[in-house]
Specification:
Structural class: alpha+beta
Number of helices: 13
GO molecular function: phosphorelay sensor kinase activity; protein dimerization activity
Largest sheet: 5 strands, mixed
Order of helices and strands: HHHHHHHHHEHEEHEEHHEE
Protein name: Signal transduction histidine kinase
Strand order of the largest sheet: 2-4-5-7-6
Number of strands: 7
Helix content: 55-70%
Keywords: Kinase, Membrane, Transferase, Transmembrane, Transmembrane helix, Two-component regulatory system
Pfam family, one: HisKA_3
Length: 397
């Protein structure tokens, strides 16, 4: 993976630096007792440094054969140290011929397989180093090198694993963002073409009547289904909050058209639930007074620090004073289920109606609370076949 590239480059730099350090020690000790063999070991280390750097730079080559060979070469250079150093092998502070170069395969195993494989490689190399020290009778046996190898293998392996996981999450996020952009593009194209055609067929079919009305009804059903399919996916919603669009789109049907903004309508979860319940009560009134096949339209938008949901129908309308008479008679459907519920949220309800003109219920809820943010964005437009535009509404308290 690309995220591992910097790790492999860092290991390559470590190999070169360790090789230079080992060569400097060899020159300082004048090749020890066997200078020819010692410089031959340095030559092997140089060749393998070049080969390993090239091999690890290719992702396809980072496999078990390369890792095992890398570890074996390091062990071979380590175990030949007594024959090069001779009697000086057991002197205090004397390092093996490859010096710190033997840590390179440990780091490679750690980057490839995480902290567990890093610990395994460290154990193998540390065992070889400790065997040399015990063999030469060095007392006390220093374990500093073994401890450092284990620390390097475990820590580097853990960091490499975290980096790999972060890279995978980033890749998934990029793919999800690309998919969402494509979905939004398709939704815009569909909204600008297919949905408008279906809306036109539905409206013209209802106007013409007869067989055309049935065709219009089928077009309306397909429009409702297609609107739900291309509705924007809910964005990340804060804990304790809800996207009102999701609750409103649940009411979509061949008889009910729902239009919502492209941006989320975030409200505290209890506020969103109560607002949706008030909309449901308004739709129940449409079915009760206009019939089960009556058409209704739901519009939702956010502006001026409030979310406004409008429910419209083409029913017979409400006679002036009828709502007050119903409340006085104890029928509190509108007074409690709609007005009372929204009033408890600090919102307002307004009716625009007239005999034979249908009814429009406008519900406004303030964007209040810590989980509410400033939302804006135009609604997706008037629903297909709506009898009136918002410019022609009449509001009565």
């Amino acid at each position: 993976m690309a995220i591992e590239g910097p790790f492999w480059r860092a290991i390559a730099v470590f190999r070169v630096a360790s090789l230079v350090y080992a060569a400097a020690l060899m020159a300082q000790h004048r090749g020890y007792e066997q200078p020819v063999l010692g410089w031959l070991v340095i030559g092997v280390m140089a060749l393998w440094t070049a080969a390993a750097t090239f091999a690890y730079s290719r992702e396809s080559a980072r496999r078990w054969p390369l890792l095992v060979i890398d570890l074996l070469v390091a062990l071979a250079c380590l175990l030949v140290s007594p024959y090069v150093e001779g009697a000086g092998q057991g002197a205090e502070g004397t390092m093996p011929v490859p010096a710190t170069w033997i840590a390179a395969p440990v780091l490679a195993w750690a980057v490839h397989g995480g902290r567990r494989l890093g610990a395994v490689a460290a154990a193998v190399v540390a065992a070889g180093d400790l065997w040399l020290r015990v063999r030469t009778g060095q007392a006390p046996v220093l374990i500093n090198g073994a401890v450092l190898l284990f620390l390097a293998g475990v820590v580097v392996g853990h960091v490499a694993r975290l980096a790999r996981q972060a890279g995978e999450r980033m890749q998934r996020a990029i793919e999800m963002e690309a998919a969402q952009r494509e979905r939004d593009r398709l939704a815009r194209d569909i909204h600008d073409s297919v949905l408008q055609v279906l809306a036109l067929v539905q409206r013209r079919g209802r106007q013409i009547g007869g067989e055309a009305a049935e065709l219009g009804r089928l077009a309306g059903e397909q429009e409702a289904v297609l609107r739900q399919l291309v509705a924007p996916a809910s964005a990340a919603v804060p804990v304790g909050s809800a996207d009102l669009r999701t609750l409103l789109l649940a009411h979509a049907s061949p008889q009910v058209t729902v239009s919502t903004p492209a941006t989320p309508l975030i409200l505290p979860a209890p506020v969103a639930a109560e607002t949706a319940a008030a909309v449901r009560a308004a739709l129940d009134n449409v079915r009760d007074h206009c019939g089960p096949d009556a058409r209704a339209w739901i519009f939702a938008e956010s502006s001026d620090g409030a979310i406004t949901v409008t429910v419209r129908d083409e029913g017979p309308g409400i006679a002036e004073g009828r709502l007050a008479e119903a409340a006085a008679a104890g029928r509190l459907g509108v007074a409690q289920s709609i007005r009372g519920r929204i009033a408890d949220l600090g919102g307002t309800v307004a009716f625009a109606t007239g005999v034979g003109e249908g009814t429009e219920v406008e519900i406004s809820v303030p964007l209040s609370g810590p989980t509410s943010g400033p939302l804006s964005g135009p609604a997706s437009g008037p629903a297909s076949g709506s009898p009136r535009s918002r410019g022609g509404q009449r509001t009565r308290g």
